[in-house]
Structure formats: structure tokens, C-alpha cells
């Protein structure tokens, strides 16, 4: 199973984790060129949350 397929079928995750997954799925083409800081700003979270 591909990572994208796994992300689409996650069930037991927090709302914060869901925001990250949703953003990744919606912006999969754009996210490759974004920094962690830019992604964190786009989903209103901290850089540390994304890399932990």
C-alpha cells in the first residue's frame, strides 16, 4: 500500500494530526517545494510539531 493510500485511511488520529494529513493530501504537488516552516504556517501549527 502506498503512503498516500495509508494516509487516506487513517482512523485513530487527533484533530491536529488530521489537519497535517489533510494538508499533505490536498497540497501533494506543492508540498515538495515548501519548507517545514511554510507548511507549519499554512496549517497553523509549529515546526516542532511537524518534525516530532
How far apart lie the N and C ends?
Answer: 24 Å
Please state roughly what percent of the residues sit in beta strands, choosing from under 5%, 5-15%, 15-25%, 25-35%, 35-45% or over 45%: under 5%
Tell me, rounded to a whole number, the average pLDDT.
87
Q: Report the structural category.
A: mainly alpha
Shape: globular
Rg of Cα set: 11 Å
Number of helices: 4
Percentage of helical residues?
55-70%
Number of DSSP E strands: 0
Helices and strands, in N-to-C order? HHHH
Largest sheet: none
Number of domains: 1
Low-confidence stretches: none
Protein name: HTH rpiR-type domain-containing protein
Organism: Amedibacillus hominis
InterPro entries: WH-like_DNA-bd_sf
Topology of this protein?
Blueprint: H1 3-8, H2 15-26, H3 36-42, H4 47-51
Q: What can you tell me about this protein's structure?
A:
It comes from Amedibacillus hominis. InterPro entries: WH-like_DNA-bd_sf. The protein has four helices and no strands. It starts with a helix and ends with a helix. 58% of the residues lie in helices and 0% in strands. The protein has helices at 3-8, 15-26, 36-42, 47-51. It is an all-alpha fold and 52 residues long. It has one domain. The model has no long low-confidence stretch (mean pLDDT 87).
Amino acid at each position: 500500500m502506498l503512503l498516500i493510500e495509508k494516509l487516506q485511511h487513517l482512523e485513530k488520529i487527533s484533530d491536529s494530526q488530521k489537519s497535517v494529513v489533510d494538508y499533505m493530501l490536498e497540497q501533494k504537488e506543492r508540498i515538495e517545494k515548501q519548507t517545514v516552516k511554510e507548511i507549519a504556517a499554512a496549517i497553523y501549527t509549529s515546526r516542532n510539531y511537524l518534525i516530532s
